[in-house]
Design goal:
Helices cover 13% and strands 31% of the residues. The chain contains 2 helices and 12 strands. The strands form 3 sheets. The protein has a 6-stranded antiparallel sheet with strand order 1-10-7-12-5-2, with helices on one face. The chain is globular and about 45 Å long. The model has no long low-confidence stretch (mean pLDDT 98). Bound molecules: succinic acid and fe (ii) ion. Succinic acid binds next to β5, β11 and β12.
């Protein structure tokens, strides 16, 4: 049995196939209003392999000039982000154990060669709120470590419909995606993986 760091929960198959289909339809609407774009790393300006967009009152963005941040508008279209689909708001209510709604939902799209380096989610004000992360489409190899970069890590597969919660002592655990398993799911007709991360950004009054 894999032992996860304290505060890190893996909920395999949390969403059934019907819910996954409904969620994909809702995310298609989000992407229609707020197209996926290629973010760049702070300072180096290197392109990330993952394409991104957001929904919610705030979206997480990064670029060469201004680095990691949250903002209310899409960096390419300049429009406000579309709302977070209601299904995701209820998922947050069910899983977050946090009394306020999420403000940001980052939508990450991984092609078959995309990956994401080990990092912490620490651009949010209220770290009492967890990060709730949903996987759709092709499986990936997910890696999670400790709250320091050099701590031991464990890797496991995330399948379509799985949810991961980083909360409490696990809120600042390093995590990343080592690889995608192409053609491991038929949920997305053209393949690839969608990851949705729900976050509270500001501290409530
Ligand atoms: C992220 O940490 O933003 C993405 C995690 C994932 O794709 O599962
Ligand atoms: Fe993250």
């Amino acid at each position: 049995m894999l032992v996860l760091p304290k505060g890190v929960r893996h909920l395999p198959g949390f969403l059934n196939h019907q819910s996954q289909m409904e969620l994909v339809a809702a995310i298609r609407e989000v992407v229609r209003a707020a197209p996926l774009y290629t973010p760049t790393m702070p300072k180096s300006g290197k392109e990330m392999s993952v394409r991104m967009t957001n929904c919610g009152s705030l979206g997480w963005v990064t670029d060469k000039e201004c680095g990691y941040r949250y903002q209310a508008t899409h960096p390419v279209t300049g429009n406000p982000w579309p709302p977070i689909p209601t299904m995701l708001l209820s998922l947050w209510r069910d899983l977050s154990a946090y009394p306020h709604p999420p403000e940001a939902c980052l939508v990450n799209f991984y092609s078959e060669t995309a990956k994401m380096g080990l990092h912490q989610d620490r651009d949010e004000r209220d770290l009492r709120a967890p990060v709730v992360s949903v996987s759709l489409g092709d499986a990936c190899l997910f890696r999670v470590g400790q709250t320091s970069r050099d701590g031991p890590t464990v890797s496991f597969r995330l399948e379509s419909g799985d949810v991961v919660v980083l909360g409490g002592e696990g809120r600042l655990c390093f995590h990343g995606v080592d690889r995608i398993y192409p053609e491991s799911s038929t949920l997305l007709p053209k393949g690839g993986r969608i990851n949705l991360t729900l976050r509270r950004v500001t501290a409530p009054e």
